[in-house]
Request: fold
Amino acid sequence: MKTSIRLVTSYSFKETKVGGNMNKSKLSVRQMCVLALFLAIEIIMYLTPIGYLRINALSVTLMHVPVIILASTMGPAAGAFLGFVFGCTSVIGATMTPGITSFVFSPFITVGGISGNFFSLVIALVPRILLGVIAGYVFKFAKKYAKNTPVAAGIAAAVATVCHTIMVLGLIVILFGPQYSQALGISQAALNGVMAGVIGTNMIPEVIVAVVSNMALATALSSRYVGIAQQA
Reply:
């Protein structure tokens, strides 16, 4: 009788233990599937006109939107990963189809006698990685105090997009100010005015699209994959 009790107890423990491992495995697979989905979206957007809409010297981009949504859904680490992918597409695009100012995003090209360098990678990658980090942490902070997922998602999207634009334009001015002015055919003194105009024409639409998209999709994904969002 004692032997039977021991066998049943042992079997129940082992079954629970295996079940726990299965749940963890499913969660890991779910995370990988969501990451793969957003990675595919980012690549598809890059390969189509949806990702980059070229306007004059700079492009209006929607590539930041999946980064913000993923960061809000799965956390800063996942956002940083997709932000890195975003940055890589920027380097590839500037290298393969260069414009007059593409040297600021690619160290592999020379345009009009002006060559990119290591700082081109800094501009292309660092703001995009930080975009995901900022979106993830702002979403967590805003959700903690606002107690409202759509509101937190909107705040995260707005803050992350503004920070991303300011970082990119600021680094261009700091690291390539004279070269950028030369490429545009303007004086360096006029460059700040040009950048202010870019903020008005590029950043505002990017903020609006990011806020609307994140409020809708991050809310839906957070409710569907709440376990992922909490553990990321």
Residues 1-26, 226-232 have pLDDT under 50 and may be disordered. Helices lie at 2-47, 64-74, 76-96, 118-146, 149-184, 191-224, 226-231. Strands lie at 52-55, 58-61, 110-111, 114-115. The longest helix spans residues 2-47.
